[in-house]
Specification:
This protein is an alpha/beta fold. About 45% of the residues lie in helices and about 15% in strands. It has helices spanning about 20-30, 40-50, 80-95, 105-115, 140-160, 175-185, 200-215, 230-240, 260-280, 300-305, 310-330; strands spanning about 5-10, 35-40, 50-55, 100-105, 120-125, 165-170, 190, 220-225, 245-250, 285-290, 295-300. The structure holds 6-O-phosphono-beta-D-fructofuranose.
Length: about 325
């Protein structure tokens, strides 16, 4: 049966590329003659009946915009049965035959609850944490990595000039994807992630010592917020090796800014396939990526899936430092590329 009207919302922490996904949902829906209603402020907006009609022009020039034009929120009310019942009422009142929910794990848990009350939902993964189990990639991750890298490159300039140690805390909630990818990309002396048990002496102090022995005079330590706090790590470094690090918490700056090419492209494809799920009579699914391809998974199955940080990458990060030490120990005549 053809559907006539769907809703779209963004929920949880915002991520670069959310607007590109909203735009793709709206334009794909319109191209199939489906009306699109924007629900503002995530699940809370669905409870409150906070909505806006979206046409093709309302999403014009949003592809490159950071944040989310639909606003976002984390809703405690939606965790309650009463709240969800109100949300269903709004769907009935607006004649919504399906909802595209753009966000992370928490958003999809909400989507599952709503789908159980008879409102079909399709989820589109968007979070800078990349911590959604069913998908290799979440919209916003690459842009956030690039923002963090740009900041850390700048920090490195001043750390190098002053021959200092820098401890930088990046986001990621309970996952170390952001920290590890960024750590590899900036050539960090050490990276601390929640997936790898942290031993300050082995994972930080020893690595600074080895790096210093190899001739380095500045050190970059990247800490995932889920692995510890940067000020505390800084204090332990001072205690352990006597150098006084400068501490930077990158914070929400990582969530802002224009989405990069990867995020615009993948958000557009995911938004398209989310609507196609409804067009083709499905729903209650999550759009995901598998080796660059887009796939659609039943929501319950998708939510039970786990994704692990590839520890191979951790070893690679460590190897980069080790080979730097070996190379320098060979002496001044040793040529490297
Ligand atoms: O999930 C995205 C994220 O930015 C996490 O990396 C971070 O832990 C959290 O959201 C911060 O949330 P808030 O915006 O509520 O401070």
């Amino acid at each position: 049966m053809a559907i006539n009207r769907i809703g779209v919302l963004t929920s949880g922490g915002d991520a670069p590329g959310m607007n590109a996904a909203v735009r793709a949902v709206v334009r794909t829906a319109l191209s199939y003659g489906i009306e699109c209603i924007g629900i503002r402020r995530g699940w809370q907006g669905l409870i409150n009946g906070d909505f806006v009609r979206l046409d093709s022009t309302s999403v014009g020039h949003t592809l490159s915009r950071g944040g989310t034009i639909l606003y976002t929120a984390r809703s405690d009310d939606f965790m309650t049965e009463k709240g969800r019942e109100k949300a269903v009422m709004t769907c009935k009142m607006l004649g919504l035959e399906g909802i595209v929910a753009i966000g992370g794990d928490g958003t999809f848990r909400g989507a599952l609850e709503l789908s159980r009350l008879g409102v079909p939902v399709v989820g589109v993964p968007a979070t800078i944490d990349n911590d959604v189990g069913c998908t290799n990639y979440t919209i916003g991750f690459d842009s956030a990595c690039n923002t963090a890298i740009e900041c850390i490159d700048k920090l490195r300039d001043t750390m190098q000039s002053h021959e200092r140690c820098s401890v930088v805390e990046v986001m990621g909630r309970n996952a170390g994807f952001l920290a590890l990818y960024v750590g590899i990309a900036v050539g960090a002396t050490a990276v601390l992630v929640p997936e790898h048990e942290v031993n300050i002496e082995r994972d930080v102090i020893e690595r600074i010592r080895a790096s210093r022995l190899a001739g380095n005079t500045h050190f970059m330590i990247v800490v995932a917020e889920g692995a510890g706090s940067a000020p505390e790590i800084g204090r332990l470094i001072k205690e352990g090796i006597g150098i006084e690090p400068r501490v930077t918490i990158l914070g929400h700056i990582q969530r802002g800014g224009a989405p990069n090419a990867r995020d615009r492209e993948i958000a557009t494809r995911m938004g398209y396939y989310a609507v196609m799920a409804f067009v083709e009579g499905r729903g209650n699914s999550i759009i995901a990526t598998r080796e660059g391809d887009i796939v659609e998974l039943p929501i319950e199955e998708a939510l039970s899936m786990k994704k692990h940080l590839q520890m191979e990458r951790y070893k690679i990060m460590e190897a980069m430092q080790f080979s730097a030490s070996v190379t320098k120990r060979e002496g001044p005549g040793f040529q490297t590329l």
